[in-house]
Amino acid sequence: MLNRINVVAFIFLTAGLWNTNTFGIEVGPLEIGGAMRVNYIRGDYTETGGDEAQRGDNGGNFELDTFRINLDYNQGPFTGKAEYRWYDGYNFLHTGWLGYNFEEAGQVQVGLNRVPFGVGPYGPANNWFFDLHYYVGLSDDMDYGIKYSVKRGDLALDFAYYLRAEHSFVGDSKESARYSYDIVDNGSDYSAYKEKNQLNARCVYSILEDSAPTDIGVSLQVGQLDADNARAKDSMAYAGAIHSKSSFGAWGLMLQCSKYKYDADYKDPALTDDLIVMGAYDYPAAVATEGTIPSVALSYNWKVDKPWADSITFYNDFSVLIKDGETASGESFNDSAMNVLGMAIANGGWYIYVDYAYASGNFFIGDEGDFGANLDDDWQSRFNVNFGYYF
Question: What is the pTM of this model?
Answer without folding.
Answer: 0.93
